[in-house]
Amino acid sequence: MDMVSTDTDDNLPPVRELSRSQRRVLGVLIEKGMTTPDQYPLTLKAATAGCNQKSNREPVTNYSEDDVLRVLDELREMGLVAVVLPSTGRTERYRHFVRKRFTFSEPQIAILAELWLRGRQQLGELRSRASRMVAIDSLDDLRQELQGLLDAGYLQSSGSLDRRGIEVDHNFYRATEGQKLEQTSGDEPESPEVPSSASPVSAAASSSAGAGATSGELQQLRVRQEELEFEVEQLREQVAELSTAVEALKRELGV
Question: Do 220 and 153 share a structural domain?
Fold first, then answer.
């Protein structure tokens, strides 16, 4: 049986700020735990690759394994990460403890992970991207989850959540980063959501506002491109891990 070294303390102070690298590493652990559970918890190598992948990351980074290990140790001291010690004596793995340190719902965890990995986003983009991790069926469902985060002070918004073009972002920045969303004005509500099952072409054809449909179509295509890039990145990681396992098996068998 695998053992988990928690290093947790019930008296740890609340977490309200995270450094840029802490957000990236924690976001990766959450994302991979939800999208590739068979490969989770993550090895140091996998966590580093997840931090530096080119899809679904803003900005793209080039962390070393030493960089990521240092951040993992920082997150362990904050009670946000634990080390899993495999009973087989193989490589240590890491898992997040966000569910233990916060009372977030599963969609809220996915939303924050997406914002930690990419930063500020409009609602339609955020719903599509976070839905890779946890199903968020509509913009109304998204708004409900966002409102809870806003009320608790974990989220910031550039205006009312029912307004068009509103951006949201996490509120875990350090004060020195100066990442506060500017408030936007306007009375135009968000346009009705196109069902997620509709294709970009059919969505454009069903709209009477040509310019609006074109904009929505382009946004859907961009999000779909990012999803495909993410899937390709996952396949590459799986192939790399399988290759490593095969090589280890060959060494054991003396092949």
Answer: no
